[in-house]
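Appendix C: a fully annotated inverse folding record. The material below is reproduced so that readers can follow the format used throughout the book. The structure is listed first as tokens, followed by the designed sequence.
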């Protein structure tokens, strides 16, 4: 069960300094984004016997924030892909998930595994559920199903507000207010636990953005790391190592290969 926020405004007041530190130490990454709209070509090359890795960043972010994890997975031979069409990821969650699935099809990606941060994990969960339904329809011979569709195997999500964030209601921007726990999309995703077993959720000991916690009922794994901050987790050496290892381990166990 998600933790219930305690102390209302007092908890928010305690979180504000940590918010400031979190952004002050991560803001420099945004300056790199215009120079890297997509992953470098060499990162999209790798072992064709393994599924592709697809990066899904958080709101107002691009794949660059996930490059530490992407580098680790590419070193293990995985082909890395971003979805530049997401831009800075301000669209509604369902629309973003549909865009991701269209992009996977357009790029000819077959089996793939998602690596996500924050909002990217909500997009990924929506895409995972919709992809499974689409493939089931195809298997059943549904005439409305496409003749081919990518297969999303699972997802590793970092600092994702699976239960929403009670702070979202204090925000003015629609891109942030969509994370309210009472939002219809959040409620639907939270209630649908059918594919939680394909999701690894990694989250910090204290996340100033998500008082509800990112612990996910029925997940393949819930991993709490000794990290304070919402942004810092994607570059913390321990969190990155855990994300890389758990992703690689999950994929290799699914395929029956040795873990190397």
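Designed amino acids, in order:
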């Amino acid at each position: 069960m998600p933790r219930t926020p305690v102390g209302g405004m007092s908890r928010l007041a305690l979180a504000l300094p940590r918010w400031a530190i979190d952004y002050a130490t991560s803001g420099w990454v945004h300056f790199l984004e215009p120079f890297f709209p997509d992953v470098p070509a060499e990162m999209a090359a790798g072992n064709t016997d393994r599924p592709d890795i697809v990066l899904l960043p958080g709101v107002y972010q691009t794949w660059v924030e996930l490059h530490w994890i992407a580098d680790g997975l590419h070193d293990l031979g995985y082909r890395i892909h971003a979805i530049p069409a997401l831009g800075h990821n301000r669209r509604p969650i369902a629309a973003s998930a549909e865009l991701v699935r269209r992009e996977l099809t357009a790029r000819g990606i077959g089996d793939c595994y998602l690596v996500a941060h924050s909002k990217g994990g909500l997009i990924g969960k929506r895409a995972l559920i919709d992809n499974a339904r689409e493939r089931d329809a195809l298997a059943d011979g549904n005439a409305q199903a496409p003749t081919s569709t990518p297969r999303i195997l699972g997802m590793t999500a970092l600092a994702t507000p699976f239960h929403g964030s009670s702070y979202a209601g204090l925000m003015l921007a629609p891109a942030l207010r969509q994370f309210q726990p009472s939002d219809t999309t959040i409620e639907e995703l939270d209630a649908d636990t059918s594919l939680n077993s394909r999701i690894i959720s990694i989250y910090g000991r204290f996340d100033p953005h998500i008082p509800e916690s990112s612990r996910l009922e029925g997940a393949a794994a819930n991993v709490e790391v000794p990290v304070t901050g919402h942004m810092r987790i994607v570059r913390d050496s321990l969190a990155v190592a855990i994300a890389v290892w758990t992703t690689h381990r999950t994929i290799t166990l699914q395929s029956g290969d040795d873990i190397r």
